Amino acid sequence: MDERYIKNFWKKVDKKDNSSCWIWIGAHCNHGYGHMRINNKMKMAHRISWIIHFGDIPEGLEVCHKCDNPECVNPSHLFLGTHQDNMDDKKRKGRNKSLQGEMNGASKLKNYQIPSIREKYSTGKYSLRDLGREYGVGFEAIRRIVNHISFKNI
Ligand SMILES: [Zn+2]
Q: Are 110 and 40 members of one domain?
């Protein structure tokens, strides 16, 4: 992969430490996956990460997430599977139909965390993105929480 694309890639990754999710802070497609333009084509960020770290993706295989966080580009959270593996994996995790909540990681949050997220947001000192980073979820998940779209009965 071209050096300048690799440079661009790293500019858009929020890399905390080696074991946690590395969050893509660049553009996202509407399925929650990060993406980036390469040779005038939109490529998925986790696939780019795979290529940077491990080389080409064998034909017919897909890059899947062990952590179930589509924004994550940490190579140690990725694995290669067939399309069928990926579908089975998604089905097992119950997110093939109702993507929204799960795709942006809201399901990782516990009920007890919700009041403090809303309280912090109401102070105006934290952006959705700040809070998302703090809690390891996408800003969309935080937006839904502070707007009482998700975790309604808390
Ligand atoms: Zn991850």
A: no
Burial of 142 (0-12, 13-18, 19+ CB in 10 A): buried
The rounded Å distance from CA 154 to ligand 1 centre is 27
- 41 Cα: distance to centroid of ligand 1 (angstroms): 24
66 and 11 co-located in one domain: yes
111 and 90 within one domain: no
* Per-residue pLDDT tens over the stretch 73-87: 999 999 999 888 888
Classify residue 70: in a domain, yes or no: yes
Residue 48 shares a structural domain with residue 90? yes
| Predicted TM-score (pTM) of this structure | 0.60
23 Cα–ligand 1 center, Å: 8
Instruction: Output the CA 74–ligand 1 centroid distance in Å.
Output: 6
* Residue 123 Cα to ligand 1 middle (Å): 29
Q: Is the per-residue pLDDT at 102 higher than 60?
A: no
